[in-house]
Amino acid sequence: MSSLSAVLRNDRSEILRMAALAEQFGAEAQLPEEDVMTLNLVLDEIVANVIENAYEDTGEHEILVSLTRDGDTLTVRVEDDGRAFDPLQVAPPDLDLPIEERPVGGLGIHIVRSVMDAVDYQRRDGRNILTMRKTIGRT
Amino acid sequence: MDIFQTTAEPGIVILTLSGKLDAETTPQFAEVINGTIDRGERRIILDMSALDYVSSVGLRALILGAKRLTPLGGRMVLSGPQDRILKLLEISGFTSIFTITATRDEAAEKLR
């Protein structure tokens, strides 16, 4: 089993540091290249979303990220103390709209739900806990 | 990220992207796309064959580019995305708003 735990601050510069951590974890946990990309994608979407939207104040907050490889299961857990936000309640985007009517954003959560096998959300003690799982090597 | 700009033939410009199109590099990409459109280019090939990673920030920039180009009568074709990026484009519903080809030549053919 390989795992990595990191504490990120709610600052955009942390997204780059997180990408480096994901690469490092990918190498240590011997993840296939496709899964490293998936991991990067998921962390990019979820952590950027927390940093940009979760906080109503301008103070410093901690975002806890843990990555685990156990056999052929990859688990990504992101925990924050921002406002309650259940990404599973976000309506899926309408992908049949023509370019003129296509909204520019709103793809992030949809992508996460598509590339991971399971996404679980809990609100506990004033914290959002998002746990995502994927079978390694499944495309 | 590196972006090379070449002209395939009169009226068709190729932007070759390599590396990552993510939160860090997308502003640079958006600047190049906007500059290309501002210069009057209307037929654009984005050669993605050397692109390793695209995040939703990068996808947003692609949509924005197409949204600018379409009302001007222009078109953007995505060529040669690696399988995992092609999958992401499919998940994101881009196959119905962009023409995606395996090679640059096919992309140029679509734009003639």
What would the average pLDDT of chain A be, to the nearest integer? Answer: 94
How far is the N terminus from the C terminus of chain B?
29 Å
Q: Give the proportion of residues in helices of chain B.
A: 25-40%
CATH structural class of chain B: Alpha Beta
The strand count of chain A comes to: 5
How much of the sequence lies in strands of chain B comes to: 25-35%
The quaternary structure here is: heterodimer
Q: How many structurally independent domains of chain B?
A: 1
Main sheet: strand order of chain B: 1-2-3-4-5
| Helix fraction of chain A by DSSP (H/I, runs of at least 4) | 25-40%
Q: Biggest sheet of chain A, strands in spatial order?
A: 1-2-3-5-4
The main sheet of chain A comes to: 5 strands, antiparallel
CATH architecture assignment name of chain B: 2-Layer Sandwich
Query: What is the CATH superfamily classification of chain A?
Result: Histidine kinase-like ATPase, C-terminal domain
| Interface with most residues | A-B, 28 and 24 residues
Please describe the biggest sheet of chain B, giving its number of strands, its sense, and whether it closes into a barrel.
5 strands, mixed
What is the CATH superfamily classification of chain B?
A: STAS domain
